[in-house]
Design a protein that fits this description.
This protein is mainly beta. It has one domain: Beta Barrel (Lipocalin). Helix content is 7%, strand content 51%. The protein contains one helix and eight strands; from the N terminus they run αββββββββ. An eight-stranded antiparallel barrel has the order 1-2-3-4-5-6-7-8. A hairpin with a 1-residue loop joins β3 and β4. InterPro entries: TAT_signal.
């Protein structure tokens, strides 16, 4: 297997929400957060699973004011992803990105990953689907690989 193919697979595996999952028992939205954009603001412990893969990844999804979104795989660990989110009726959408070093080391240009997520909040739980796309180094249009999956999660209480 070529180093490039391995690098792309590693990028997809670490793709933050290259994200999907098994339902996690949910917690009800706390009263202090009930009015904040229909209860999405804050962080959610989640599980994602790529379609066709038995592997499940634990991650944290964070919704902040101003449309700021952060996703971070925690088990196994991966790089953080940053981007934006918005409500659309009863659903929400997020688009977020991360990058990886190139084959020449940390200073070289490597692939980037964009994830587009669509989900819902029901009964204190979030769930939905995503599509992760790996782009060639230095390109926002040349697709190397893409995959889809599902995610679910529950709020992290302070």
């Amino acid at each position: 297997m070529s180093e490039n193919a391995m690098g792309r697979r590693q990028a997809l595996r670490g793709a933050g929400i290259a994200a999907g999952g098994v339902a996690i028992a949910g917690l009800a939205t706390t009263p202090a957060l009930a009015d904040d954009d229909n209860g999405l603001l804050g962080s959610w412990i989640s599980v994602r699973q790529d379609d066709g893969s038995p592997d499940k990844v634990r991650l944290v999804l964070s919704f902040a004011g101003g449309g700021v979104f952060v996703s971070h795989d925690i088990s196994p660990a991966g790089p953080p992803f940053t981007g934006t989110w918005a409500r659309h009726g009863k659903s929400f959408r997020a688009t977020f990105w991360t990058g990886f070093p190139g084959e020449g080391g940390p200073e070289s240009v490597g692939p980037t990953v964009r994830v587009r997520l669509v989900g819902t909040l029901k009964h204190g739980k979030i769930s939905g689907t995503y599509r992760a796309t790996v782009f060639a180094p230095g390109s926002a249009t040349e697709v190397l690989e893409s995959n889809t999956g599902k995610f679910s999660g529950r709020r992290i209480d302070a």
